[in-house]
Amino acid sequence: MRILITNDDGINAPGLQVLTKIAQDIAGPSGEVWTVAPAFEQSGVGHCISYTHPTMIAQLEPRRFAAEGSPADCVIAGLYDVMKDARPDLVLSGVNRGNNAAENTLYSGTIGAAMEAALQGIPAIALSQYFGVGNAQLPDPFEAAAKHGASVINILLNPSLWDQENYRLFYNVNFPPVAAADVKGVKAASQGFRKDTHFTAEAQTSPTGRKFLWVRGGPQHTPTAPGTDAAANLDGYISVTPMRADLTDYDMVATLEEVFT
């Protein structure tokens, strides 16, 4: 198996090292793992692509490249430059430092990379490690992902769990904020919503008198509804959420047809 890996935390991020080992385990001794990751951190860029300016790319080692662009740019670079002669069988994105559950999904560059791969017709899985009191102070806060990542992915590689729809399925996996030994299992979950939790902006004045705004995230340990991703994670479970890039609210289509008739 040929696997392309990327992330949004940057080419030197610890989570990418974890994902490299996971991908090597899945690819096996006869497989290949290729890395195309952002040269600098790209957290929060979502599915952004560098449409109006070129992206510089540099080879750092065999099968390891850094691109001055977004995670989605990295996937495009992998498919149309780095691996253009033999496309990957699978794209893995992560392991993100912090959860990409609930509303975080909409901002995540980790998710954006997986979404781009799906739009390009490549099976893709995004992986993120929730941080909290149960793992933040561990020698390896990514140990839940490191321990359980390959087994979850191997289950998801069952051909029956994929399709050939125009907006193809991809998967969002979040590992709970606990030690690897304390993971309770895996749950299929829908995308949750943290009520009264929003990104905000905080103003600060620089020593030169200029005003700057810092974007701040909301509380991350607010449980979402039962059966959803963050609720499962905070209960000690790995969450697996099937996703598509289609944003249509199909429940409203018939209503709108009546309105506009």
CATH topology title: Stationary-phase Survival Protein Sure Homolog, Chain: A
Helix content: 25-40%
Q: How many β-strand runs?
A: 11
- Briefly, what CATH class? Alpha Beta
Features:
26% helix, 25% strand, two-stranded antiparallel ribbon, alpha/beta, cytoplasm, nine-stranded mixed beta sheet, Stationary-phase Survival Protein Sure Homolog, Chain: A, globular, 6 helices, 261 residues, single chain
Condensed summary:
The protein is of the alpha/beta class. The chain has six helices and eleven strands.
Textual characterization of the structure:
This protein is of the alpha/beta class. It has a single domain (2-195, 223-259), classed as 3-Layer(aba) Sandwich (Stationary-phase Survival Protein Sure Homolog, Chain: A). The chain has helices spanning 14-27, 71-82, 109-119, 143-156, 229-234, 250-259, and strands spanning 2-6, 32-38, 57-61, 64-67, 90-97, 124-129, 170-175, 185-188, 200-205, 211-216, 237-243. Strands 3-4-2-1-5-6-7-11-8 form a 9-stranded mixed beta sheet, sandwiched between helices. β6, α4 and β7 form a beta-alpha-beta unit. α2 (71-82) packs parallel to α3. The protein is globular. The N and C termini lie far apart (52 Å). The model has no long low-confidence stretch (mean pLDDT 97).
